[in-house]
Amino acid sequence: MSKIKILIVEDESIIALNLKESLQDLGYEPCGIAPNKCKTMKILEKGVVPDLILMDIYLKGPTTGIELAKELKNILPFTPVIFLTANSEVETIKKASEALAYGYLLKPYKKSNLHAAIEIALSKAAEDNVKNRRLDATQNVNKTLVHQLELNTEQQSRTIQLKYGYLYDKEKEILYYGDEPVKLTAKEIKIIKYLCNSPGHNVSQEQLEYAIWQDEPAGYAAFRSVLFRLRNKIHKDLITNQNNTGYKIELF
């Protein structure tokens, strides 16, 4: 089993070396020592991924340990940070908590306290990471459901549910029976399209004729011939004759 890798960010070299020895004695693997932000970044740029970071709050240089910890959250979002400081003021602890610290260790520290702080931080971070993964998974599922709902809503707005298992897609101008498109001629689909512009309502024969032959109607016989062939391809009662005054396509 691989050892837990711990990065030490401490600007006092003696304290840093003591920490390194203590970590080794406790069975951890110190994976680097950095006195400031610049050296910390150089270590991480080499591909080092620590399991935990021990961070001095008051580092020498323009970037404090608290500021650096906040920046590292973007690079190492799942790596817990334990702050090290000789300052026990409430304001300092409050600032450290704002950086989402997993522990706070006062100098000088006991090895047993160091060990306890590390184990508690690792355990808490593992729990948080599991919760975050579950939350991400839930959010992804929710996004998928929302997307599916949007697709369904979009599909519903462009389709008309007809009787006897038929569905008309207004955008594609296709009549479906179940999942299969019904093979219709251009004139036949024009009848379906025009009837579906006013689904469930009566449409006169003259209107349908003009829908098929826009320039000049071909006459009653030609219309009846097209309608007869269309009705032979679909359910006989999907298109009904309304007392010889026109035709209606039946909604679901």
Can you describe this structure in just a few lines?
This protein is α/β, with parallel strands linked by helices. The chain contains eight helices and eleven strands.
- The third-level CATH topology of the largest domain is Rossmann fold
The CATH architecture of the largest domain can be named as 3-Layer(aba) Sandwich
Look at the structure and name the CATH superfamily of the largest domain: Response regulator
Distance between the termini: 64 Å
Overall domain count: 2
Envelope shape: rod-shaped
**How many alpha or pi helices?**
8
Helix content: 40-55%
Mind summarizing the main beta sheet?
Answer: 5 strands, parallel
Elements, N to C (H/E): EHEHEHEHEHEEEEHHHEE
Which sequence of strands runs across the widest sheet?
Answer: 2-1-3-4-5
- SS content category: alpha/beta
Low-confidence parts: none
How many beta-strand runs? 11
Round the Cα radius of gyration to an integer and report it.
37 Å
CATH secondary-structure class of the largest domain? Alpha Beta
Q: Kindly state the mean pLDDT as a whole number? A: 83
Strand proportion, as a percent range, falls in 15-25%
Helix and strand topology:
Elements: E1 5-9, H1 13-25, E2 29-34, H2 37-45, E3 52-56, H3 65-75, E4 81-85, H4 90-98, E5 103-106, H5 111-158, E6 159-161, E7 166-169, E8 174-177, E9 180-181, H6 186-197, H7 205-212, H8 220-231, E10 239-241, E11 247-249
Parallel strand pairs: 1-2, 1-3, 3-4, 4-5
Antiparallel strand pairs: 6-7, 7-8, 8-9, 10-11
